[in-house]
Amino acid sequence: STTKEPPKIHRLEESVVNRIAAGEVIQRPVSAIKELVENSLDAHSSSINVVVKDGGLKLIQVSDDGHGIRFEDLPILCERHTTSKLSKFEDLQSIASMGFRGEALASMTYVGHVTVTTITAGQLHGYRASYRDGVMENEPKPCAAVKGTQIMIENLFYNMTARKKTLQNSGDDYPKIVDLLSRFSIHHIGVGFSCRKHGATRSDVHTVASPSRIDAIRSVYGVSVARNLIKIEASDNDPSGSVFNMKGFISNANYVAKKITMVLFINDRLVECSALKRAIEIVYAATLPRASKPFVYMSITLPPEHIDVNIHPTKREVSLLNQEVIIEKIQSVVEQQLTNSNETRIFEEQM
Ligand code: ADP
Ligand code: MG
């Protein structure tokens, strides 16, 4: 037999480790934008503007009017595991911010060129600094700045040829980016959002802060969605401790679409939950005569200790305590509301 000697195990260089990890946090341009927008939300911004070139591969720019970043923090801003949001592991149980891993900005510097411009309250001028591979490249330069922070990523995946090629072949991320900002803007209605391609005068998402969720939905998803919505609400407070609250809008029997739109926030985090999505689709298929897919906006709140936000670096999925109970409850509320609205519709048609 050909017994070979085992290959020698060695330690990877830190820069290699960091780039591998970065590729997981920042999977594509839209994931970078999600992280940047969440940082802007965490900074209590009231206006967030996104500019994108070449689907985000050439340029991503996110500007906000939030609290800014301290001058003293700029040197470590893009190092791995530096954050202003989490100190102790236990804090994860009650974390209210979107971020907590201190990895997003660092990751971006390992797979792109990052420039940060920021100003804090009471300062006469801001600062600009550039970063590569976690390191600030030179002393921050004083510069003119309006309130908040602007983060620019250039040449994303310049050092990941395979990733860049796959992305270039699969059509660009711009539609995904518009979709992402649309979702954020109907949940965070106190924040104005805009998104446009670099050089374009027209924005593809444009919302102003407004007290009305329906207005936000109308301005982003159109009148045909907004005029066919049913308000839903559910909550539960049983002794087993499955405390939850759900509020939202679902499309009625008059709404027609080929694909489901499901915008889901759990404790203000934009997440996916395929089990819940499927459960709602089943209700629609069983209740409505036409094979129309629903529009669903749902905001669920749970005690923070009932939700595990740290399942994946992208934070796209969360796991819930008592998920089945919650889904069943939501399913029955949706069914009830939809049946009511459908009966009203049939009745009105018969009059
Ligand atoms: P995390 O959000 O998990 O803390 P990030 O790498 O996304 O990690 O950001 C690191 C830190 O940089 C944040 O904790 C925050 O203090 C600061 N920061 C990032 N973006 C902004 C912003 N737009 N406005 C103010 N501070 C920011
Ligand atoms: Mg973050």
Automatic annotation (TrEMBL):
Every DNA mismatch repair protein S5 domain range: 217-339
Compartments where located: Nucleus
Organism domain of life: Eukaryota
Family indicated by similarity: Belongs to the DNA mismatch repair MutL/HexB family.
Protein name as it appears in the record: DNA mismatch repair protein MLH1 isoform X2
Species of the source: Spinacia oleracea (Spinach)
Portion of the full-length sequence here: 25 to 375 of 749
